[in-house]
Design brief:
single chain, alpha/beta, 8-stranded mixed β-sheet, two-stranded antiparallel sheet
């Protein structure tokens, strides 16, 4: 369990609602904005890394996307890509107004689906000092066929049937039809890849996050294949660190590596392990690489 220094709850407006966040005050003027993928809320998504970044002197703003966690927005548990990217824009505006943050030394960090968002967010914010995409989902058209092959035919049919029903239900004001974010092969879940079930032991090994609802509206199953945020890589002007895991079966390695090559100032760090390895056996290597990158681009006192 990470040891937290003082942190405080803050809220910031986004669209017609507000997002909840943890603010860890920093000492060097740099700030890292953090969020997790799909239904992962701010604590399981960021606690392990945020504490280490804060120990290194950086402020942290770790937030929940709208419709998830402690953020506003209804109906709940619905992923809308454009809404979530708008939440990132709002988080950047919030961070640049914090008293311990230099507006010219702000970074963004996301993993999995949020790691994909990082490509869009960084492309739209040339003022960002740097960006980190950890095991990012950058190309749904490459990932979706692999995810389908990891499902049993019956489970895939049931998932897509539920996705269609959820989409039509949303048009008529019905509550979302929810599915587990991850499950074993044969389950009706968004992801049943071999490493999908590593999430619990990676993100909540001590079962501290009792309120974390690991479900998502089923309509995302119809949308994920068309989400390709890696296409924005060529527009990213700030330094970009892409952290990939060589045995990743959830978002795959090659799409992220290809996208990184299209970013003008990119670095790629390869870790051994599956999708959640940065939270598990490769955690220290991931933290070291990311703090080194942040120090180089956010901390003017660092000689690197």
């Amino acid at each position: 369990m990470p040891a937290f220094k003082q942190r405080e709850k803050v809220r910031f407006a986004s669209g017609d609602t507000s997002c909840a966040a943890w603010h860890y005050p920093g000492t060097n003027g740099g700030c890292v904005i953090m969020a997790g993928g799909t239904s992962v809320t701010k604590e399981p998504a960021s606690d392990l890394f945020a504490a280490r970044f804060n120990d290194a002197g950086f402020a942290v703003l770790a937030f929940d996307h709208r419709r998830f966690g402690e953020s506003g927005g209804a109906p709940r548990q619905i992923v809308r890509f454009d809404e979530q990217v708008a939440d990132w824009h709002a988080a950047i505006e919030c961070a640049t107004g914090l008293p311990d943050v230099d507006p010219d030394r702000v970074s963004v960090w996301g993993f999995s689906l949020a790691g994909g968002h990082i490509f869009r967010v960084a492309a739209d914010h040339p003022r960002l000092a740097c960006a980190i995409a950890q095991t990012p989902l950058v190309d749904g058209s490459a990932v979706a066929p692999h995810a389908l092959r990891s499902m049993t035919p019956l489970a895939a049919l049931r998932l897509f049937g539920r996705g269609v029903a959820d989409s039509f239900g949303g048009l008529t004001g019905r509550p979302p039809l929810l599915v587990p974010t991850a499950g074993p092969r044969g389950a009706v879940a968004l992801l049943t890849t071999p490493d999908a079930m590593d999430g619990d032991r990676a993100l909540d090994p001590d079962r501290r996050h009792a309120n974390w609802e690991q479900t998502v509206a089923a309509r995302i199953a119809l949308q994920m294949g068309g989400y390709r945020p890696g296409r924005h890589a060529s527009r990213i002007r700030c330094p970009l660190l892409v952290v990939v895991c060589d045995q990743d079966q959830s978002v795959l390695t090659d799409p992220a590596v290809r996208a990184a090559r299209n970013a003008p100032q990119s670095e790629v760090v390869h870790l051994t392990g599956r999708h959640y390895a940065p939270f598990l056996e490769s955690h220290e290597q991931a933290v070291a690489a990311e703090i080194s990158f942040l120090a180089k681009h956010l901390d003017p006192r660092d000689p690197r």
